[in-house]
Design brief:
Blueprint lengths: L2 H12 L6 H13 L3 H6 L7 H15 L4 H5 L2 E3 L2 E3 L13 H14 L3 E5 L5 H12 L5 E6 L2 H13 L5 E4 L11 E6 L21 H4 L7 H10 L3 E10 L5 H10 L2 E8 L5 E8 L1
Parallel strand pairs: 3-4, 3-6, 4-5, 6-7
Antiparallel strand pairs: 1-2, 7-9, 8-9
Helix pairs in contact: 1-2, 1-4, 2-4, 6-7
The structure holds S-adenosylmethionine (SAM).
Length: 281
């Protein structure tokens, strides 16, 4: 079978399950051929070796069953970084780049020395922040934690690959972090309601529930972190959360109740409330 026909066949198989069947087919074939996608457009009539075709069709079947492309390719672009992902990690989302931007903004303005990320997953936030700040010769100490050792293994792999010195600690939120105070704490914690139907639909079905869901109202993790964070922050230190677009008012209230000031929500590119930040007095 030639490239053009293989892509067409795959695209037809993927149409019922994917919003981007053509792109998915191209990504999978590029991956199997180990060639950039421009190669597929340049050589549409090239015949595929039988073993290449077999390997491609196997990946198409996985996608047909709903598995996200990022898990099939074990890779996801985030910020300017190519990150390894696995079924132990959330697939980093583009909207999380807003959280990274805010951390970088504050870190540059205030020349922060110590940053803590809670729930690092693939390491996306910590590594993106470290890589931007190191370009400006700002080198704060960054500690990143997760409860999942399998996620931390991926995060360590990513930080080594992008040559960023980050300390990774396995911890249930603050529990196993050596006592100290930070200039800034950032978290994109699980924030979906545990009975949200979206957890059983589409690509999300393949992601770890522990990375997505957090109690009946989705706020168990944010509530816990907001209650504990004061004693882990220096005076004037910052706490930043990503949260659901409908949770901003509740998150602001939680932060105010726990003594934080200058509480503010920022919208993402889709104009949804996405990040809330606040300061310890
Ligand atoms: C929404 S994911 C965010 C992953 C990554 N920071 C990102 O933005 O792509 C939440 C992360 O929190 C971690 N997590 C869940 N419960 C935790 C807990 N009790 N303590 C520490 N981390 C936890 C999950 O394993 C997951 O990696």
């Amino acid at each position: 079978m030639i490239i053009q026909h293989a892509l067409k066949t795959a695209q037809q198989c993927l149409e019922p399950v994917s919003d981007s069947p053509r792109l998915d087919a191209q990504c999978l074939l590029s991956f199997v051929l180990q060639k950039p996608s421009v190669y597929l457009r340049t050589w549409p009539e090239q015949a595929l070796e039988p073993e290449i075709l077999q390997a491609f069709l196997k990946l198409v079947q996985r996608r047909e069953r709903g598995e996200p492309i990022a898990y099939i390719l074990e890779s996801k672009q985030f910020w300017s970084l190519d990150l390894k992902v696995s079924r132990a990690t959330l697939i980093p989302r583009p909207e999380t780049e807003l959280l990274v931007e805010q951390v970088i903004r504050i870190a540059k303005q205030q020349r922060l020395k110590r940053i803590l990320e809670l729930g690092t997953g693939s390491g996306a936030i910590a590594i993106a922040v470290a890589s931007e700040l190191s370009k400006k010769q700002l080198l704060p100490q960054i500690i990143a934690t997760d409860i999942s050792t399998r996620a931390l293994d991926i995060a360590k792999h990513n930080s080594k690959r992008h040559q960023q010195a980050i300390e990774f600690i396995q911890s249930d939120w603050f529990q196993s972090i050596p006592q100290q105070q930070f200039d800034l704490i950032v978290s994109n914690p699980p924030y979906v309601e545990c009975d949200d139907v979206h957890l059983t639909q589409g690509d999300v079905r393949f992601e770890p529930v522990s990375a997505l869901a957090s109690g009946e109202d989705g706020l168990t993790a944010i509530r816990h972190i907001a209650e504990q964070a004061q004693s882990w922050l220096k005076h004037g230190g910052w706490l930043l959360f990503e949260h659901g677009y409908q949770q901003a008012a509740l998150v602001r209230a939680l932060l105010s109740e726990n003594g934080f000031v200058d509480v503010k929500t920022i919208k993402d590119l889709a104009k949804n409330d996405r990040v809330t930040l606040a300061k310890k007095q």
